[in-house]
Design brief:
The complex is a heterodimer. The radius of gyration of chain A is 21 Å and the shape is globular. Chain A folds into two domains: 29-110 and 313-356, Immunoglobulin-like (Sandwich); 115-301, C8orf32 fold (Roll), CATH 3.10.620.30. By secondary structure, chain A is α+β, with helices and mostly antiparallel strands. Chain A has helices spanning 3-17, 20-26, 127-132, 144-153, 160-174, 189-195, 202-215, 267-276, 287-295, and strands at residues 30-40, 47-52, 62-71, 75-80, 87-93, 101-110, 113-114, 176-177, 199-200, 220-227, 249-257, 261-265, 299-300, 304-308, 331-334, 337-338, 347-356. In chain A, strand 8 (176-177), helix 6 and strand 9 (199-200) form a beta-alpha-beta unit. In chain A, helix 5 (160-174) runs parallel beside helix 8. Chain B has one domain (29-167, 177-199): Glutaredoxin (3-Layer(aba) Sandwich), CATH 3.40.30. In chain B, 30% of the residues lie in helices and 20% in strands. Chain B has an eight-stranded mixed sheet with strand order 1-9-8-4-5-6-2-3. The radius of gyration of chain B is 16 Å and the shape is globular. Classes of the chains: A alpha+beta, B alpha+beta. The A-B interface holds A 19-22, 33, 56, 64-78, 87, 89, 94, 97, 105, 107, 358 and B 13, 16-17, 19-20, 56, 58, 60-64, 66, 90-94, 114-116, 119, 124-128, 144-146. Strand 3 (62-71) of chain A pairs parallel with strand 7 of chain B, so a sheet runs across the interface.
Chain lengths: 358, 201
């Protein structure tokens, strides 16, 4: 046996005998834990909460190890959205419980992902999947002004990658991050285009990306989640600096390209670098922006936990909640009344995150 | 009819602030074949004829740790009866499990689901996830969350499962001695498995 073969065999055997987490770490995986604590203040009547959970299906860049819950709830169970396969924790407290509280812990592994456009492979969606990921949602129509705008943007582009690239560059050049936007925005794409005011946050700008892509036949989807760690690339604006990540929700986007699969993009984060990266209000030609712009077409730094890709979410067992455009925050209701998901005093919750050594 | 009655009885909350033990409606029972901390293989099929509590847990799961003493309490109270606990750890290093076991004497096997594949097959997405297996080898009840396994409602469910006939048990034997003693030795866990259980005490 030559030395190289011996080393390869030894490495393979070592990997087999290593505990799962150690073996994964060797392949670039990082392990994190998030803890979401929800308290419903001034509770009366039956209380319910809906807590986003990590992506249930493992993939090449995120794997769920497990989840646990504790608290004084009567019921806590993982439920699924039938259309998108989204998992969420449904929690219910009886009427007599005056101080509803639940704490949810999730352990998961992530690793950075990047698409190598020089190495195409035999990857494609089925016709049904292609139809699904080019379909409109309630706030992301694919006709009218959305399609017209996308056709203008992609004029001359032939492949899905070329179209997706053209839309990405257009988003970066024509939108801006509006710090006054509540939460992460709502993702009302048609209103955004009709208003001519292309300001918003991630759920607006990346939903716009998804809508424009879908309208010209490029399968695309939003991916909702939360940042859990600092950026190792030195971007203060693209990570979290504390263990408290309660307000670090972030939406990203993907498009599907034949031969390459799902391609990660994040034009909204390029605009975040422009606005927030110190010293702030950077020029688009600033080298930090240019570097982020280059990197965020085709790669994601996985200092972020993906929750789901769902749109038009109907909260299970909710008394009278309208469909939500997406589920990225903790939601709760008391005695049939929804609490404001963005109002900390009505639904008090904290999310903490930490990286674990394996 | 009796089974339906039991189903209705236990579908209510077992205690304020606790998880619920609910009748299982999730389909066939997945296979379970895992090593314990000493490397001995345990198969669920080996315990056919016994009521088995399969408990998925992790050291980082606070409610999992919290309910462990009550699981051991239940096991202890059923000593001599055809009842077995299999506690499946979710993808943690051996050293971490051993350290935990050193702090809490437990008298049942701690099994290692090294890559989480068994937990996924059992849809144990929310820890602690506990499955009560009937003497026929089928999942009968499930609970996601912490339970007081020594509480009366839980004990009633377990006792009811213990009273059921083990597979192949003759009908004529139904009226003879206490239900717990009815499981034929041949269908109980092999003695070697029982020995292995003790080794993890």
């Amino acid at each position: 046996m030559n030395r190289r073969l011996f080393l390869q065999s030894s490495a393979a055997l070592a990997a087999q005998s290593l505990p799962w987490n150690y073996a994964r770490a060797a392949a670039g995986w990082r392990t994190f834990e998030t803890t979401t604590r929800v308290e419903i203040s001034d509770a009366f009547g039956v209380a319910r909460a809906w807590v986003p959970m990590p992506l249930e299906a493992d993939n090449d860049w995120q794997k769920t190890i497990g989840n646990s819950w504790s608290g004084n709830a009567r019921t806590a169970r993982i439920v699924h959205d039938g259309k998108y396969g989204m998992a969420l924790l449904y929690v219910e407290w009886p009427e007599k419980e005056m101080n509803p509280v639940v704490e949810v812990t999730s352990r998961f592994m992530t690793r950075d992902r990047a698409v190598d456009f020089s190495r195409p492979a035999e990857i494609d969606l089925s016709a049904a999947e292609r139809e699904f990921f080019t379909a409109p949602t309630e706030l992301i129509p694919t006709d009218g002004i959305v399609r017209k705008t996308a056709l203008d943007i992609t004029k001359g582009a032939k492949s899905d990658v070329e179209k997706a690239r053209a839309i990405y560059e257009w988003i970066v050049d024509n939108t801006f991050r509006d710090p006054k936007t509540r939460g992460c925005g709502v993702g009302d794409v048609k209103s955004l285009l009709e208003s001519g005011n292309l300001g918003g946050k991630c759920a607006d700008l990346n939903a716009l990306y998804v809508g424009l892509a879908r309208s010209v036949g490029v399968p695309a989807r939003d991916v909702y989640g939360v940042r859990v760690a600092p950026s190792k690339y030195g971007y203060k604006s693209l990570g979290v600096g504390t263990a408290n990540v309660t307000k670090a929700q972030h939406c990203r986007a993907e498009f599907f390209a034949r031969g390459f699969g799902w391609v990660p993009v994040d034009p909204a984060d390029v605009r975040k670098v422009v606005l927030e990266e110190p010293p702030g209000n950077l020029a688009v030609k600033d080298e930090k922006v240019v570097a982020a712009r280059t990197r965020l077409f085709g790669s994601w730094e996985m200092n972020w936990l993906a929750y789901n890709t769902a749109h038009d979410v109907q909260l299970p067992n909710a008394t009278k909640a309208p469909k939500k455009p997406f589920l990225m925050y903790v939601n709760a209701e008391c005695d049939g009344e929804m609490r404001d998901e963005l109002e900390p005093d009505s639904v008090k919750y904290t999310i903490t995150a930490r990286e674990l050594s394996v | 009819m009796l089974r339906l009655l039991w189903t209705l009885l236990v579908a209510v909350p077992l205690a304020a602030g606790a998880a619920e033990l609910k009748p299982w409606s999730g389909g066939p029972t997945p296979a379970l074949e895992l090593e314990d901390l000493a490397g001995q293989v345990h198969r669920l099929a080996d315990y056919r004829g016994k009521v088995v509590l399969v408990n998925f847990w992790a050291t980082w799961c606070e409610p999992c740790r919290a309910e462990m003493p009550s699981i051991d309490g239940l096991r202890s109270s059923l000593d001599g009866k055809p009842f077995q606990v299999l506690a499946v750890n979710l993808a943690e290093p051996l050293s971490r499990i051993e350290k935990f076991a050193g702090t809490m004497p437990l008298h049942f096997p701690l099994l290692r689901d090294r890559d989480g594949a068994v937990a996924k097959a059992w849809r144990a997405r929310l820890l602690p996830a506990s499955f009560l297996i009937g003497r026929d080898g089928r999942i009968r009840y499930v609970a996601y969350g912490e339970l007081d396994w020594t509480s009366e409602p839980v004990r009633s469910v377990v006792d009811q499962l213990l009273r059921e006939e083990a597979p192949g048990q003759r009908r004529a034997a139904r009226d003879a001695p206490p239900p717990a003693q009815k499981a034929p030795a041949a269908r109980a866990a092999p003695s070697s498995a029982a020995d292995r259980t003790r080794r993890h005490a």
